[in-house]
Amino acid sequence: MAQRQSLSPLRRALPLLLTTLLAVVNPVSASVVTRLSDQQLVDRSHLIVTGRVTGIETLRAGSDPRRFTYITVQIVETLGGPGPGAELVLKQPGGAGPENTRWIFGSPEFTKGEEVLLALRARPDGSLYTTGLFQGKFSLRQEARGRRAIRDFSHAGTMVLGGKLFQALHEDRDFATLRSRLRQLVRQRGGLQLRQIRTRPAEYADAAASGKTRSSEAFSLVGGKWPAEAFPVVMDFSVNKQPGVSSGGLNQTIAGMAAWNAISGSYAALAPGGFVPARSIFACDLFSQVNFGDPLDEIPNDGTLALGGACAVGTDYVDGDITFNADFSSQSVFSQAGCFQGAATHELGHVLGLGHSSSTSALMYPGISNQLCSNPYPRSDDIAGVTALYPNVSTPSLPAPGPPSNLSAEVAGDQLTLSFSEVSDATSYYVVAVGYCDPCGEIFGSPLFVAGLPSGVFPIALRSVNSGGVSALSEVVEINVGGVKPVPGTLLPPTQFKVEVNGFQISLSWNAVPGATAYDIVAVDICDPCGTVAVTDISGEVPFGSYTLGIRARNGTQVSNLSNMVTFVVTGF
Questions:
Q1: Residue of 513, 450, 438 lying closest to 481 (CA atoms)
Q2: pLDDT tens for residues 415-454?
Q3: How many other C-beta atoms can be found within 10 angstroms of the C-beta atom of residue 462?
Q4: pTM (predicted TM-score)
Q5: What is the number of other CB atoms lying within 10 angstroms of the CB of residue 537?
């Protein structure tokens, strides 16, 4: 019978995950931007124009899994930078495709026919995008009091640092005054930064020529949430760490997950996954991940400290991601204890589908304050939001069932038939091969027929299962597959193998085996053996993750079968 796999075995990460432990006994989606002044906006831009949005199109270039939206702007006036001609095409991250939608929180929204003022940066390939995410775009509107330039700092999914924290989140400025100020700032610095500009990204020009673009009327965030069956949402971590943050940002982010999970009125849950190579924040790859230190260099040096993104099919989220910039700690606010954890917890709130709160005391308010740093946990408004999205409807709890009875086994060659008396309040049953796997699999009634068993002598038992829990073992029956004859003097496997977890500290213990001189520690899918010890209880620290462990006894000439296997999760809490 196959051993049960661990829930999330760190993707076969490090064969030495348990070396630290063994050494002890043998001498572990949302965005953050800095608020740009007019001067900083000019300093960090390569081009400033006014114009009208005439086209919004999405494409996926070849095998590139990243998604971008291409915004065509008919230029009315150039306020700074080279004269790019009558038209240009922006390349904004995210967009809607035929099968799903990718959104980067903090991206500016566009509508066909909209008049805009744009501050733009050029990538190394010359393609243009808005400076500082939404900060590089003003909507221009004609009102009774004149032409206005509108910008909203409470933009969905974006935490803003700097400026007057609780003021002027919604900007409504006189366009003529702003236009004159930007022109003056450009002149004072002797022009904008010099960089080659492509008015039409190469891949867009090719796709447009061959009719492979997908047109839409608007580029905007569509609210979404996770379907109930998606929980817990497992978020992997990139193998690199966050510069300037203790534990590389890992402990603070896991603490943020635990904070959302602790809300009793909500069934929403986030779980730490494993360490994996970095994946693009711009891709809809069905994996949720936190990247520390911007390992793929996807965050521009324009005041953006973190990017968060979500992918949805319709309004159902299918992945959520966060990437922190490498210079996150350059902001003095993050030298304060709790600030990074507060920012990470805020971003995780967006991953769950929460928008911003208008309450200045809420974790989901779009700004960081000393109050947030000193108490980086969801408050009443945040709790109300997540319980409204994912209400935890209580159901009467069943008591755990009793064990099955009258277990019998028949073996014919490599085939086994198990029969037993079913338990009235059980919904399924776990099959246990004592000393090999617990459980080895799940069945739903009697009898059970299994073919293709390996040769050997196996003690077999069952456990009953329902929503109230899992029963104790039934009686144990021994099966002999292939007519194996016992070998006198064979080492027995260790029994009563137990694991206790306290934070990152784990303790292992088991019963001594007569004749054994040492014991191998085995971690399924990670290392076999991970090390050998001469004692029957050890302890030490291991990284966060999910593990399935067992023990083998050995002496100079013999090695036993595995003990019972134990699966457990290390979260650091």
A1: 450
A2: 888 899 999 989 888 888 765 676 777 788 898 887 777 7
A3: 27
A4: 0.56
A5: 11
